[in-house]
Amino acid sequence: MKWSIAETKGQKPSARAAHSAVRFGCKVFIFGGRHMNLRLNDLHCLDLSTMTWSGSLCVSSEQPEGRSWHTASAVSTNQMFVYGGFNNNCVPLSDAWILDVASLSWTQLTHFPTNKPRLWHTACVTHNQEVLVFGGCGNNILANEEESQVDHRNDILLFQLQPYTLSRLCLECAYRHRVRLGAQWDSLPRQFSDWLNRKEDLDIQLLMSTDTGSESHSDSDGEGGTTRTGQTCVIS
Predict the structure, then answer these.
(1) For the whole prediction, is pTM greater than 0.85?
(2) Strand 71-74 relative to strand 52-53: parallel, antiparallel, unpaired?
C-alpha cells in the first residue's frame, strides 16, 4: 500500500478544510468547507476517469449557505444528502438539502425539524436509503473555551428520505401489535423474525438504560457527573 499525489488537470478547488466529498460512479463531488475564515458553498467535480477538475459548477437553483463541518451522503445513484454544519456567522446548522448531481440542482428539505443543529458529526446510509447522523456538537464550539460547555451529542438522528417498502411496513405493523402477534413471529421467514426480535431486544436495552440514567441523575443530587443517555430521533 502506497500513497502518491494525484496528478490532475483543469481548475482545482481552492485549498480548504472540513469539506465533504462524495463519489458517484467515476465522479467525486466536493462541496463547501473552510478557506481561511470563509466558509464556502461552491461545488466541484473530479472525473476520476480523466483526473480532470470541473471548476466551480453553476447550479440551477437556490443553494445552501456556506458551511464547514457538515456531512454529505450519496442516497441514490444521482442524489447527495447534505446535513448540518457551521456557517459564516459561527452558527451550527440543522438544515437538510438534496443535490441532484445530474441536473446540478439543490432542493431544501423543509419538512425536517430545524431545532437539531449538528457539526463535526458523522453520517451513513442504510440499505433502506435512510441517513443515520450520530455524534458531533450542537453548539458553537469556538465560543466555549471550556470542554464542559461544549454540547457533545450521543443521540442518533434518522432521516427517512423515501417511503418504506411494503415488507418494512408489515414488519413495523407486526412489531406495533407485538402483544397480540409476538407469539407468531417465529413462524415468519427467518430474516423477518430475526429483525423483530432484534428490535424488541434493542428497545428493552434502551428502556433499561433510560431508567438507569434517570436513577443516576436523581442520585447525583444536582452535582452533575451523569452521562446523557443516547436516544434515537426518527425524522421523516
Answers:
(1) no
(2) unpaired
